[in-house]
Design goal:
With 713 residues, the chain is α+β, with helices and mostly antiparallel strands. It folds into five domains: 4-195, Hypothetical protein af1432, CATH 1.10.3210; 196-340, Beta Polymerase, domain 2; 354-468, Ubiquitin-like (UB roll), CATH 3.10.20; 473-626, no CATH class; 636-710, 2-Layer Sandwich (Alpha-Beta Plaits), CATH 3.30.70.260. A hairpin with a 3-residue loop joins strand 20 (664-673) and strand 21. The protein binds manganese (II) ion.
């Protein structure tokens, strides 16, 4: 067990100005909090955080990180809270301990290593301060070192698999090679003890036979390079059983053919020295083709730089040699922690403090030129824009940042999305628009009565959710339009004295390129096909169908519907009368007649825009007025422009209000659609201006209708 003063001494060795007080207080606090708790080994629990702190001193980490390591299990496993840690140790350590605690909680939630890649991203994304991740890795390392004490074989397997699939790759990604290799080897011993044992035995056999082979090769490499006047440092080692195993699998070769179970490092002064040493070694030893790699000109994504080569070494063994400078060596050994240097006894974190590591890591990634590496880098950047959340069963769902409960529900399943009414986020009931954060556990509440709402479209962040909502609303609108179209067609039948039947419509579907009567009704309802066209197709002799409405643009003064016998005073007797379609004059409007040769009089409202073109031909104007004494015309058409909220039921409300006010929609045309609104014009059959005014007033009083205007010109 490391004693309190030993820990402080270890930190002071690399940071003379260390804040000893904070280390001492964290030591005492953690020891008191963990009290009599025991580890599976029977040791006092406090030994664990202490060992974790000890591991991190090897990486020369600052006092805050070491204190965090001492405190890392207090929130999760004792009665203390993040607030208390913050109060006692300040906001920085509070934040770090909180970060480690959150990672630990997530670890407990998910045992699905299938999602290892997502999980690694989650851990990285949550470790905004990379020191959180370093503490977590050291924590995992110590737990792996003591995994043998866990009684349950199943639990040991789970932890080992998680270590292999998540933590070792994470350590690799941030360049912590030593931690990576140790984690891998400890996990390997759990996951495949037989394979590991046979490799260890074989290594022992080679060692026995070859004597101190590694030492002899190191000596010879040193001598060869010294002869060339180079000041170098050489180390050699056997590769770890797991890395040998992986190579055996990857290359599909047996242990006998495996060349480089020994790796040697040559550390030189400068980058040119690296290439010079390479030249010397290649000149002296036969090189193994295909083994040379230049990670100096093209660093690995985690910042690793070195020259690698394979040669038949001085003892006629195939060996791997890595050549690098001292700086490169630090990065290779310590990863991101190598950038945390103590100049003048102060961490030279520069502005942005501890975030410098992460930034530098990203910069290193940015400089990667290999497409594969670039891809990895892109992924890393991408998931800064992602959040990762859990289902109650622990499945991990990855979503874009800003995603809501509705997005989550759709990501789980389309049906779940369609029917969601709310959700519990970390056990608390929250509204659907709630934006999710990393690590949230989301329990979606559904109801069979629920359907997607157009309102959701305003806050969802995923394409999947948006597409489903739109599709649903479109299909719903379509059924509303179909109902409208059917009733319009029904009226047209009645007007001509025919009995309406859906069967009759089915006979003419092909002529309108429709699959079903429903399709055709929807087209009528949307104003794309006139009901009289359909009627004309069903009963060819009945009456000439009205021209198609779509694209029809009533030009100024152009005569349209002819309705002789309409009570208008001031006309020349026998003159045909037409109502202008630009302004749709109604009894009650002030009107004027325009003589159109060969057609008769066209009636406009006095304020119709079309009249301005006719101002220079005063002889064509006739002074006319409605004849109040005569019978009111049965059917006049008023055109109105509406802005209707794009939501369920708004079209239904529109038709209901018009029907209640004894109006009758004879035509409807969507002018513009947005996610929020529809803009449309509708023609309403009314008796007179007053009637139309009533209809408009009623529409204005309808909540889902935002604006109503009579169309003039
Ligand atoms: Mn722990």
């Amino acid at each position: 067990m490391i004693r309190q003063y030993e820990l402080v001494e270890k930190v002071r060795a690399y940071d003379p100005d260390v804040d000893e007080d904070v280390l001492n207080r964290a030591y005492i606090f953690s020891m008191k909090m963990h009290g009599t708790q025991k580890r599976a080994s029977g040791d006092p629990y406090f030994l664990h955080p202490l060992e974790v702190a000890g591991i991190l001193t090897r990486y020369r980490l600052d006092a805050q990180t070491i204190a965090t390591a001492l405190l890392h299990d207090t929130v999760e496993d004792t009665l203390t809270t993040v607030e208390e840690i913050e109060r006692v140790f300040g906001p920085d350590i509070g934040r770090l301990v909180d970060g480690v605690t959150k990672l630990s909680r997530i670890e407990l939630q998910s045992d699905q290593t299938k999602q290892a890649e997502n999980f690694r991203k989650l851990l990285l994304a949550m470790s905004a301060d990379i020191r959180v991740l370093l503490v977590k890795l050291a924590d995992r390392l110590h737990n792996m070192r003591t995994i043998g004490y866990i009684a349950s074989a199943e639990k040991r397997q789970r932890i080992a698999r998680e270590t292999m699939e998540i933590y070792a790759p994470l350590a690799e990604r941030i360049g912590m090679r030593q931690i990576q290799e140790e984690l891998e080897d400890l996990a390997f011993a759990q996951l495949n003890p037989e394979a590991r044992a046979s490799i260890v035995t074989r290594l022992q056999f080679l060692r026995d036979r070859g004597g101190s082979l590694v030492t002899r090769i190191v000596d010879q490499i040193k001598r060869v390079l010294a002869e060339d006047g180079m000041d170098i440092w050489v180390s050699g080692r056997e590769k770890s059983p797991y890395s040998i195993w992986r190579k055996m699998q990857r290359k599909n070769v047996g242990f006998e053919q495996l060349s480089d179970i020994m790796a040697f490092r040559v550390v030189v002064g400068t980058v040119p020295d690296c290439y010079r040493a390479l030249g010397v070694l290649h000149g002296r030893y036969p090189l193994v083709p295909g083994r040379f790699k230049d990670y100096i000109s093209t660093p690995k994504p985690n910042g690793y730089r070195s020259l690698h080569t394979g040669v038949i070494g001085p003892e006629q063994q195939r060996i791997e040699i890595q050549i690098r400078t001292g700086d490169m060596h630090d990065v290779a050994e310590f990863g991101v922690a190598a950038h945390w240097s103590y100049k003048d006894g102060r961490p030279s974190a520069g502005e942005g403090g501890s975030y410098r590591w992460l930034r530098e890591l990203l910069e290193l990634l940015e400089n990667a030129s290999d497409p594969q590496e670039f891809l990895e880098h892109t992924k890393l950047e991408l998931f800064q824009d992602q959040v990762f959340c859990f289902t109650p069963k622990g499945a991990l769902i990855s979503l874009p940042r800003g995603a809501t409960i509705v997005d989550f529900a759709y990501a789980v399943h389309s049906e779940v999305g369609d029917r969601c009414v709310g959700g519990k986020v970390n056990g608390r009931m929250m509204p659907l628009r709630t934006q999710l954060a990393n690590g949230d556990q989301v329990d979606v509440i559904t109801s069979k009565a629920q359907t997607p709402s157009p309102l959701w479209e305003r806050f969802v962040a995923t394409g999947k959710a948006r597409a489903r909502i739109r599709r649903f609303i479109r299909s719903q609108q379509r059924s509303q339009f179909a109902a409208l179209g059917r009733s319009m067609l029904q009226k047209a039948f009645q007007a001509e004295g025919y009995e309406f039947a859906d069967k009759a419509v089915e006979n003419v579907l092909r002529g309108f390129k429709c699959q079903s009567a429903e399709d055709l009704y929807a087209l009528i309802g949307e104003g794309q096909v006139g009901e009289r066209q359909v009627l004309g197709a069903i009963f060819p002799g009945s009456r000439p169908p009205a021209p198609p409405r779509r694209g029809e643009k009533p030009a100024g003064g152009k005569p349209a519907s002819s309705q002789p016998g309409i009570p208008i005073k001031g006309l020349i007797p026998g003159m045909a009368v037409h109502y202008a379609e630009c302004c749709h004059p109604l009894p009650g409007d002030r009107i004027v007649g325009i003589v159109v040769p060969g057609r008769g009089a066209v009636i406009h409202t006095i304020d119709c825009d079309a009249l301005s073109e006719l101002g220079e031909q005063p002889d064509r104007w006739i002074d006319v007025a409605w004849d109040a004494a005569s019978d009111p015309p049965s059917q006049m058409v008023g055109r109105i422009h509406l802005v209707v909220a794009n939501e369920t039921g708004s079209l239904g409300a529109l038709t209901t209000v018009i029907a209640k006010n004894e109006g009758n929609i004879s035509n409807l045309k969507i002018v513009n659609r947005t996610p929020q609104f529809w803009e449309m014009t509708i023609d309403v059959e009314v008796r007179n201006l007053k009637h139309l005014t009533n209809v408009i007033a009623a529409l204005r009083a309808t909540p889902s209708i935002n604006a109503v205007e009579r169309v003039r010109g």
